[in-house]
Amino acid sequence: MTIEDVAAGAARRLLSVLREIADEVGPRAGAVGRVADYIPALSGVDPAAFGFAVAGVDGEVLGVGDWEVPFSIQSVSKVFSLALALAGGDSLWARVGREPSGNPFNSLVQLEHEDGIPRNPFINAGALVVTDRLLTLTGDARGAVLELLRAESGNPAIDFDAGVARSEAARGDRNAALAHFMASYGNLENPVEQVLEHYFWQCSIAMSCRDLAAAGLFLARHGLRGDGSRLLDRSAAKRINSIMLTCGAYDAAGEFAFRVGLPGKSGVGGGILAVVPGRCTLCVWSPALDRHGNSVAGVDALDRFTTLTGLSVF
Ligand SMILES: NC(=O)CC[C@H](N)C(=O)O
């Protein structure tokens, strides 16, 4: 029996739970937290938006609320760039760690004490190293990420949001500082400006909960893509899920693991992608963020999901 057989119909069976959570959490969306405004183009998003999708490993995707409305995926893109970089081999691990940082996602402080090696691939410094590696591997890091997202979601219309990318670049001093600092330690192979540009554009990709849940299914399928081909070996897929669990919610990763008990990756656009290995992926979106940069209603919804269903990795 294959994983597909075991989990066939998972999305359909879970839809009623999503409805229940949307009724409970949805009306509170936007009441607590703030929309990210350090990227000016994100500041106009409706804080009360709420969408929640579930994708079964058989490929069926269902959802509730604003689940088909595109939003800025921001740091959720880091999961996909990491997957592509690791598909190119293990050498990345000499240049980035896999420990939670306990610091904000854009912090500089640890880099100096730790020789320009970022703690993990999901803080900005780590993601810049991953983007650099992908640039070396492919010559077009942002294009590679976009192509993977289009293919795995089955939606060829997914695209960059140039307004968001330019807005972030215009306010990109902190990420530029991180990149230059790592370059001074020899931990970037490509010119800083190029790495930053690919990183900003990759973060600007706009997608819905539907598309992101579908695109992340290779993580629930232990590395297998939608067409049955292998993106990652089982071990690499396990590793990405593990790092999502320990580092996917920045300096609130411990709290996220405590409450949700699933591998997850959040972004300052308000999206969170979570994985129930062997069964399904979940994507929730609500733009009002807590002080760590995680969606308030998003974490609440995932917390309720694992409580109501008992589905977690523990
Ligand atoms: N946490 C995030 O989603 C951060 C991504 C954003 N593009 C940044 O670099 O600041």
UniProtKB/TrEMBL annotation:
* Enzyme Commission number(s): 3.5.1.2
Q: Which UniProt keywords apply?
A: Acetylation, Hydrolase
What reactions does this protein catalyze? Answer: L-glutamine + H2O = L-glutamate + NH4(+)
InterPro entries per record: Beta-lactam/transpept-like (IPR012338), Glutaminase (IPR015868)
Q: Where does substrate bind?
A: 75, 124, 168, 175, 199, 250, 268
Point out the coiled-coil segments of this chain.
none
The UniProt family comment states:
Belongs to the glutaminase family.
Please give the subunit comment from the record.
Answer: Homotetramer.
Q: What is this protein called?
A: Glutaminase
Origin organism is: Saccharothrix mutabilis subsp. mutabilis
Taxon lineage: Bacteria, Bacillati, Actinomycetota, Actinomycetes, Pseudonocardiales
